[in-house]
Each structure stands twice: as structure tokens, then as C-alpha cells.
Specification:
The protein is an alpha+beta fold. The protein has three domains: about 5-285, Beta Barrel (Butyryl-CoA Dehydrogenase, subunit A, domain 2), CATH 2.40.110.10; about 290-460, Up-down Bundle (Butyryl-CoA Dehydrogenase, subunit A, domain 3); about 465-500, no CATH class. Helix content is about 50%, strand content about 15%. It contains 20 helices and 14 strands. The strands form four sheets. The chain has a six-stranded mixed sheet with strand order 2-1-10-11-7-6, with no helix packed on it. Strands 5-8-9-12 form a four-stranded mixed sheet. Strands 3-4 form a two-stranded antiparallel ribbon. Strand 1 (about 20) and strand 2 (about 25) form a beta hairpin. Helix 6 (about 100-120) runs antiparallel to helix 10 (about 280-315). The longest helix is centred in the middle third of the chain and has 37 residues, at about 280-315. The radius of gyration is 26 Å and the shape is globular. About 45% of the residues are buried. The mean pLDDT is about 90. The chain binds flavin-adenine dinucleotide (FAD). The site of flavin-adenine dinucleotide (FAD) has 19 residues, from strand 5, strand 7 and helix 17.
């Protein structure tokens, strides 16, 4: 089924327990601030219904029904490129939607690990995951994925936490019909706009933590779930908000992340995709993170396109675009955006088949490299954009000043830039830069899709050390490179060249 935007919005009036700025939200869809998240999430339902985009966003499932293309498992590089195209298209609409992105990666990670568990343990998790996939396809549901626990003392394992044992989600009761879970997940994107959530562990577990090894799906209005939205970047949603925070106001940028508390929530067995098999927690985390970096890198690509674009616009409006040091900075911003983009694309082309499954995921080393490159350089990029823009990136007057007849003529006259550029354009560009480089973006670039240490771990674990060492051994003439598939098959210099060279004379200086 493909839902219309209207059907999707109606489905959110589901009595969920959600709070924003200290107040219970009666209806997320009409809430003045969370409504922005829904507006942005609606694009997920707009595109499949638009004939121009239908081929990209809609696919047939095995029963021949039209379903959201993201609910079909990726099996080839082309499937991943299609996903990439979907993510890039939605994010380029201006902040874009994240609905589906976390959830579909959680769904595929659940399937990959279900394949492995069924193969090794004789369980029947694949049936459950596939029945749930059908449920999502049939209802065309919006789904998010919750991995990050609140974690308490980071140096202690889940069961060793001292204040209480609920810093990581755990199973507190196993009943005939299902399980009861308790704990809290934090920073979960797109929650206000999602219908359901898949919950996964965020770390590897030992046997003593087996109650924390649990993957399940639930509707967000289930009894016992309380959702607390993060602080929206602005308090009103009016013309002023759209002027002062063009990105945040339009897309809900910054207000979609939520704390989701599970206080003894019942989950029926058919929605439980892992329960107690602690040896597989790590697999879920790795499979999810590797799949999810594809989305992350697409989001980052569009943000960097916008950052390079707005830096270039303010340079032009300020009349400095031809100065050498400005061009150097703009060139760096363009290279940075392109590097993240092409490594992301390469990760689809060089995709990897998941062990024990026919699902492919983006190349783990490529995709983590792209995310790390993005996150590690983001503050540097912001620094350059701020340097190019000048102090007005911080001190720019507001919409109120712009629309007040007493101050407007003064701003028109004194805040103009290059002749021929309307002052309003200059101010709009600077407001976008200020919004785009706010704390949310800076923190999000570091921690969204996992902190820097996580990518280093993935790259270290997946890097082709055999190839790197073979390169060094071959050059240093240390045996052990001959069987390497790349370096071992390369030719040596033709012997006729060496045999014609004269021997070095004694005392000859190189
Ligand atoms: C905008 C945004 C959106 C997000 N969306 C989602 C989402 O949709 N779903 C989801 O599940 N998560 C989401 N996240 C969470 C994100 O994945 C986490 O923020 C990230 O993994 C870091 O976890 P943390 O915030 O708990 O920080 P911490 O884990 O507290 O990390 C802080 C620092 O402590 C270090 N550290 C922590 N534990 C250890 C340890 N044991 N040993 C050594 N060093 C350690 C880290 O490496 C890091 O340097 C989002 C985050 C942001 C900012």
C-alpha cells in the first residue's frame, strides 16, 4: 500500500504520550513546533504519490503489491544506489525527512541477524521479521530505529550499573504471550513523525548482560511509552521563525530527536526479533551501523552542498569572491563536499554481502571513512564559512528588525553588500548560514550516526591490512607479499632495464 500524505498525518493522532517544552502534546500533527517535523516527514509520502518520482520511491513486493521501495531489502549495488538516490532527493528538499531511514536499516539489520541466528541456533526469527516487514508494507508505516541507550556510567557494562539497572533497555519479564521491557533510548530521530520503532542494543554483550540483548518492534503509542522531544531551535512557528531560522523552521531540523522511555512495555513474541542471544548483539549493532551510514553520508552530502553554496553566496554578496584566500577556502569546502559524496557512492558500488544473508550493505570501510571525514572536518568547515561571512554570522539582526518600519530603512542602507545584490538576499543568506552552523548541526555532525571513535573502530576492524602490509613488504623486499591478490600479481621491472644499467662506481654520489 502507498498512503497519501493526508492518510499518513491522520495516523499520527494515536494518543501517544509525547511531551515538548514541558507540556503534553495532544496532537503531534498540529503542534506548532513538532508539526514541522511532520511537514518534513510528509515528504516520504509525497514523493511516492508524485508520478515524476514514483518509479524511484515505489517498488513491487513479492506479492506484486506496490510498496515503499525502502521496505525491500537491498540485494545489489544498484539497489543501494537507488536507496542513495531516494535519500539524496528527500534531503535536497531542504533539511529533508528522516522518516524510514533509521527504521528500515533496523529492519534489515534484524533480518541479517535473524538469518544468522536461525542458521546457527535453529530459531525462527526470519519468519517474524518478514511478517513484520509485511505489516510495514501493508500499512505503509513510518518507522524509526532506536539504538542509543541512555547508558549511565559509560565505563560500566549494563548489568554492572550502580544507581539502577535500567540505563540500557532490558527484558524484565518473559511471559507466555510476550516480553516486558524497561529502559530508555535517547536522541532518537524522527520519533514525533513515526508510527512505530524498532529497538536494538547499542553495544556488544557478555552472558551476564543477556537480559539486555533484545531487539523488538512496537507502536509508539503502546502503553508504558513516554516520549520527550528535544528542544526545538525556535519557540514560535511564524514568519519570524522562517526568516530567522529558514532551515529549522521549514523542516523541524533539530526538534525531531526524542528521549523514549519504556516503563514496563509489553511486546508480543511476534514482534521480538532477538531475546537473550547475547552473542548476536554485536552483529545487530554492526549490521545496523553499516547500513545506516549510507543514509548518514547522503544527509551529510546535501548539508555540505548547502554549506559550500551558502559560503560562496555570502562571499559573492560581500564582494570578496575573487580574493585568493577566499577562493582557497571555497575550494576546500567544495573538495570536502565532493569527497564525502564520492566515497559514499563508492560504498554502494563496492558493497558487501552480509555473512549468512543475501542482503548487501555499503562497503564498511568506505562508508565509515566518509562519515569520519565529514564529522572530523565539520568544525573546520564551519570555521571557514564563518570566516568568509564575517561577524554578521553571529550578530545579524532579526526578522523583527527587518519588518519594523523604524529600522528597515537603516538595515536596507547599512547592511547592503555588493551593488546590485538586494540587502534582503544578503541577510537571507547569512540567516541560513547561522542556522546551518548552529549547535545542533555541530553536535549532530560529530555524534549523529555514531561518535568518531565508532567509525575508527569500524575502519580499523575492516581495513585491508593484508593489502597495506603487502605494499610495504614488496617495497621493503620483505617476503610475504607474493600471495596478495593485488600486490602479489603485479609485475617487477623488466630485467632488460636493470641489466643495461651500469653498476654504480665507487664514490659516486646519488
Ligand atoms: C542529532 C542526533 C541524532 C541522532 N539520532 C539517533 C537515532 O535516530 N537513533 C539512535 O539510536 N541514536 C541516534 N543518535 C545517537 C548517536 O548515535 C549518539 O549520540 C552517539 O552514538 C554517541 O553516543 P552518546 O551521545 O550517548 O555519547 P557517549 O556515548 O556518552 O559518547 C561521548 C564520548 O564518550 C566516549 N565513550 C563513551 N563510552 C565509552 C567507552 N565505554 N569507552 C571509551 N569511550 C567511551 C565516546 O567515544 C565519545 O567520545 C543521534 C545523535 C544525534 C546528536
Amino acid at each position: 500500500m502507498i498512503r497519501t500524505v493526508e492518510q499518513y498525518i491522520e495516523s499520527l493522532s494515536d494518543e501517544r504520550q509525547i511531551y515538548c517544552l514541558g507540556e503534553r502534546v495532544r496532537d503531534v500533527a498540529t503542534h506548532p513546533l513538532l508539526g514541522n517535523v511532520i511537514r518534513s516527514a510528509s515528504m516520504d509520502y509525497f514523493f511516492p504519490n508524485d508520478p515524476k518520482y514514483r518509479d524511484l520511491f515505489v517498488a513491487k513486493n513479492e506479492d506484486g503489491d506496490d510498496v515503499n521501495a525502502l521496505f525491500i531489502s537491498p540485494k545489489t549495488p544498484e539497489d543501494l544506489l537507488k536507496r542513495r538516490n531516494i535519500f539524496l532527493t528527500t534531503w535536497r528538499t531542504g533539511g529533508g525527512t528522516q522518516l524510514h531511514c533509521m527504521g528500515i536499516d533496523a529492519l534489515e539489520a534484524s533480518r541479517i541477524v535473524a538469518d544468522r541466528m536461525d542458521g546457527r541456533l535453529g530459531t525462527h526469527y526470519v519468519e517474524r521479521v518478514e511478517a513484520y516487514r509485511k505489516h510495514l508494507q501493508k500499512g505503509d508505516l513510518g518507522i524509526t530505529g532506536a539504538m542509543t541507550d541512555v547508558k549511565g556510567d559509560r565505563s560500566l557494562r549494563p548489568s554492572k550499573q550502580e544507581t539502577h539497572k535500567d540505563y540500557y533497555i532490558r527484558v524484565v519479564d518473559r511471559q507466555k504471550e510476550g516480553i516486558v521491557v524497561r529502559g530508555a533510548k535517547m536522541h532518537i530521530s524522527s520519533t514525533p513523525g513515526a508510527n512505530e520503532v524498532i529497538v536494538m542494543p547499542c553495544r556488544a554483550h557478555g552472558e551476564e548482560d543477556k537480559d539486555y540483548a533484545v531487539v523488538f518492534a512496537t507502536a509508539l503509542n503502546a502503553q508504558g511509552i513516554t516520549i520527550i522531544a528535544s528542544e526545538p531551535p525556535m519557540r514560535e512557528r511564524d514568519d519570524a521563525a522562517f526568516w530567522d531560522y529558514p532551515l529549522s523552521a521549514a523542516s523541524g531540523h533539530g526538534s525531531s530527536e526524542c528521549l523514549i522511555v519504556f516503563e514496563d512495555v509489553f511486546v508480543p513474541w511476534d514482534r521480538v526479533f532477538l531475546c537473550g542471544e547475547w552473542e548476536f548483539s554485536r552483529d545487530v549493532t554492526y549490521a545496523f551501523a553499516t547500513l545506516h551510514r549510507l543514509f548518514g553520508v547522503c544527509r551529510m552530502t546535501t548539508e555540505l552542498e548547502m554549506l559550500a553554496g551558502v559560503a560562496s553566496l555570502v562571499a559573492e554578496y560581500n564582494g570578496i569572491e575573487k580574493f585568493a584566500h577566499i577562493r582557497d577556502k571555497l575550494a576546500w569546502l567544495a573538495m570536502y563536499a565532493e569527497a564525502v559524496n564520492v566515497i559514499g557512492k563508492a560504498s554502494c558500488l563496492d558493497c558487501e554481502k552480509q555473512k549468512g544473508s543475501d542482503i548487501v550493505s555499503p562497503n564498511m570501510v568506505h562508508t565509515n571513512t566518509a562519515k569520519y571525514l565529514f564529522a572530523d572536518n565539520y568544525h573546520q568547515a564551519v570555521k571557514m564559512a564563518h570566516d568568509i561571512c564575517g561577524g554578521i554570522a553571529d550578530t545579524i539582526p532579526t526578522y523583527g528588525d527587518w519588518t519594523n518600519p523604524a529600522t528597515r530603512p537603516l538595515l536596507e542602507k547599512y547592511l547592503g553588500g555588493k551593488a546590485g545584490v538586494p540587502t534582503e538576499y544578503r541577510l537571507r543568506a547569512v540567516r541560513l548560514l547561522k542556522d546551518l552552523t548552529n549547535t545542533h548541526s555541530q553536535v549532530g555532525s560529530i555524534h549523529g550516526e555514531g561518535s568518531l571513535a565508532a567509525q575508527r573502530m569500524f575502519v580499523y576492524a575492516g581495513a585491508d591490512w593484508g593489502k597495506f602490509k603487502a605494499a610495504a613488504k614488496r617495497a621493503a623486499r620483505i617476503p610475504g607479499w607474493e600471495k596478495d591478490p593485488i600486490y602479489g600479481s603485479l609485475p617487477n621491472y623488466p630485467s632488460c632495464i636493470s641489466s643495461k644499467m651500469k653498476p654504480l662506481e665507487k664514490g659516486y654520489k646519488l
